[in-house]
C-alpha cells in the first residue's frame, strides 16, 4: 500500500536528531496555559507521528472495508494491509511465524486471553501462578480471576527497596506446581528492567510457561521473543506510537494450538452448525469479531517508523535522558526516588517530602509539564513503599534535555511554593 513512509527523522540516520524527530509529531508543537507543552506522560500513552495519523486518515478516505470477508477490491486491499501489519509485528519481535501474532485490543486483553485460555486447558486445582510484586494490575487481576475459577494459588515474587526482583525468593517459589510465571519486562512505576531470559530459563526448568508483559518494553528496547524464549508476550499499540484499540499477543504454537478460543464469533470459526462449530486456524482462532484493523495497520506504520530511526539508537538516547532526569531531579533534594535498579528504562518516579503527588502534578501542569501522578495501576508497589502514589516522568524518543530542564525548574518552583 502506498502510505507515506519517508519522514524527517528517517532521512538522517547518522545522528539522532531529536529536533527533526519532533517535527514528525504535530501535537508537541502547542502551548498549554501559554507555555510550551512538555509531554512526559509517555508511559500512559505515546503521541503519534504524522505518518501514523495520515495512515489512519488515508485508510478511511480511500481504502476502508472490513477484512477477510469480501471478494471485492476494497476488502482485498484492507485484508492485505492488515496482514502486512501482522508481518511487520512478526519481524519487530522476531517471532518465528505470523500464525503466532494475535491482534487484541491491548496488553490487558492479551493477558486476559492467556489467563483464560491457557488456564482453561492447563491450570488445575493446586497449581500455582507466579507474578511479581511490581506488576501492573493488568498482569495481576486476570491471574487472580483464573486462580479463583480453577482453585489455583497466586504467589508473588517480591522486589527489594531498589526495585529489583529478589532472585533467591523467585528460585524458592519455583516448583513443578507452577504453571505460569507472568512477569513485566519493564516496570511502569519503577522503571526496572527485569532479566527475562534468565527468568525464562529458570521457569522452564520446572516446566512453567512464561508470559512477558512488554507494554513498557517494546518502545524502549529491541525485544526478540526467540532470544528470550518466552512462551507469550503482550504489548499495546498506543504505547509504541500507534493508535489506541490495538494490541498484540505472541505465543508459542505448542500452547496456542492446544488452548481453547477466548471468545466466539466471526473470523474465529471455520464452520458453524447447531450441532458443531469448527474453529479456525491460528491466529484467527483468537480473533473473534471485527478486529480494529485500522489500528492494526497504524501499528505496522508505527513500527516501520520506529525501525526507520533504529531502536538501538532510541534506547541509547532515552538512556541518556533517563540518567540526566534522574540526576537533576535527585539534586533538588528532599525527595524519595522509587526504583533504583541497575537496569532501568522509560521513567523516573519520585515524591517530595511533605508534598502530595497530586499537588506536584497539578502545579507543574500549570507550567506546561504533563506528568502522571498516583498509583500507576500498581497498588502493590505503592503498598511496598507505604505511599499513596508517586510522581512519574516517562520518556519517549521525542523528549529533549531542554524539556527535562523545564521539568526540573517547574519542580523547583513547586518546592519553593510549599
Ligand atoms: N502492563 C504495563 C506494564 C503497563 O504499563 C500497562 C499500561 N499502563 C498495561 C499493562 C496495560 O496496558 P493497556 O491499558 O494498553 O492494556
Write the layout of secondary structure elements.
Blueprint: H1 8-11, H2 18-23, E1 31-32, E2 35-36, E3 38-39, H3 50-63, H4 73-93, E4 101-104, H5 107-122, E5 128-132, H6 141-150, E6 153-157, H7 167-173, E7 178-184, H8 196-205, E8 209-213, H9 225-228, E9 232-236, E10 247-251, H10 253-256, E11 269-272, E12 277-279, H11 293-309, H12 311-330, E13 335-338, E14 347-352, H13 357-365, E15 369-370, E16 372-374, H14 379-385, E17 390-394, H15 401-417
Parallel strand pairs: 3-15, 5-6, 5-7, 7-8, 8-9
Antiparallel strand pairs: 1-2, 4-10, 9-10, 11-12, 13-14, 14-17, 16-17
Helix pairs in contact: 3-11, 4-11, 5-6, 12-15
The structure holds 4'-deoxy-4'-aminopyridoxal-5'-phosphate.
Features:
418 residues, Aspartate Aminotransferase, domain 2, 4-stranded antiparallel β-sheet, 17 strands, binds 4'-deoxy-4'-aminopyridoxal-5'-phosphate
Q: What's the shape?
A: globular
Structural class: alpha/beta
Share of β-strand residues: 15-25%
Major beta sheet, strand line-up: 4-10-9-8-7-5-6
The total strand number stands at 17
Note the gap between the termini: 56 Å
Proportion of helical residues: 25-40%
CATH topology type of the largest domain: Aspartate Aminotransferase, domain 2
Supply the CATH superfamily name of the largest domain. Answer: Type I PLP-dependent aspartate aminotransferase-like (Major domain)
Major sheet: size, sense and barrel closure? Answer: 7 strands, mixed
CATH architecture tag of the largest domain = 3-Layer(aba) Sandwich
Instruction: Supply Rg.
Output: 22 Å
Distinct compounds present: 4'-deoxy-4'-aminopyridoxal-5'-phosphate
Amino acid at each position: 500500500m502506498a502510505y507515506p513512509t519517508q519522514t524527517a527523522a528517517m532521512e538522517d540516520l547518522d545522528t539522532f536528531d531529536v529536533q527533526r524527530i519532533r517535527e514528525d509529531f504535530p501535537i508537541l508543537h502547542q502551548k498549554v496555559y501559554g507555555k510550551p507543552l512538555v509531554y512526559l506522560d509517555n508511559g500512559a500513552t505515546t503521541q503519534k507521528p504524522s505518518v501514523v495519523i495520515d495512515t489512519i486518515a488515508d485508510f478511511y478516505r480511500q481504502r476502508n472495508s472490513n477484512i477477510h470477508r469480501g471478494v471485492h477490491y476494497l476488502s482485498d486491499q484492507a485484508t492485505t494491509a492488515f496482514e502486512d501489519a501482522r508481518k511487520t509485528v512478526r519481524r519487530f519481535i522476531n517471532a518465528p511465524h505470523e500464525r503466532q501474532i494475535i491482534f487484541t485490543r491491548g496488553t490487558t486483553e492479551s493477558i486476559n486471553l492467556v489467563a483464560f485460555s491457557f488456564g482453561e486447558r492447563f491450570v488445575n486445582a493446586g497449581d500455582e501462578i507466579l507474578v511479581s510484586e511490581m506488576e501492573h494490575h493488568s498482569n495481576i487481576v486476570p491471574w487472580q480471576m483464573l486462580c479463583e475459577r480453577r482453585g489455583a494459588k497466586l504467589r508473588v515474587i517480591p522486589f527489594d527497596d531498589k526495585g529489583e526482583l529478589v532472585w533467591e525468593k523467585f528460585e524458592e517459589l519455583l516448583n513443578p506446581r507452577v504453571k505460569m510465571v507472568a512477569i513485566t519486562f519493564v516496570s511502569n512505576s519503577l522503571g526496572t528492567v527485569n532479566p527475562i531470559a534468565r527468568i525464562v530459563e529458570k521457569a522452564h526448568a520446572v516446566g512453567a510457561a512464561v508470559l512477558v508483559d512488554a507494554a513498557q518494553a517494546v518502545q524502549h528496547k529491541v525485544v526478540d521473543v526467540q532470544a528470550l524464549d518466552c512462551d507469550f508476550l503482550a504489548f499495546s499499540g498506543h504505547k509504541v506510537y500507534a493508535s489506541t484499540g490495538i494490541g498484540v499477543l505472541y505465543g508459542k504454537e505448542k500452547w496456542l494450538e492446544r488452548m481453547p478460543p477466548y471468545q466466539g464469533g466471526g473470523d474465529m470459526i471455520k464452520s458453524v452448525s447447531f450441532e458443531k462449530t469448527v474453529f479456525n486456524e491460528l491466529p484467527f482462532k483468537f480473533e473473534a469479531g471485527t478486529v480494529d484493523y485500522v489500528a492494526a495497520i497504524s501499528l505496522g506504520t508505527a513500527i516501520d517508523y520506529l525501525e526507520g530511526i533504529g531502536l538501538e539508537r532510541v534506547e541509547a538516547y532515552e538512556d541518556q535522558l533517563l540518567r540526566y532526569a534522574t540526576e537533576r531531579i535527585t539534586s533538588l533534594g528532599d525527595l524519595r526516588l522509587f526504583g533504583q535498579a541497575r537496569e532501568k528504562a522509560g521513567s523516573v518516579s519520585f515524591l517530595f517530602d511533605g508534598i502530595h503527588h497530586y499537588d506536584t502534578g497539578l502545579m507543574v501542569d500549570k507550567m506546561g509539564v504533563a506528568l502522571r501522578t498516583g498509583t500507576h495501576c500498581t497498588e502493590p508497589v505503592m503498598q511496598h513503599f507505604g505511599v499513596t502514589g508517586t510522581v512519574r516522568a516517562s520518556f519517549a524518543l521525542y523528549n529533549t534535555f531542554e524539556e527535562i530542564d523545564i521539568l526540573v525548574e517547574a519542580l523547583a518552583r513547586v518546592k519553593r511554593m510549599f
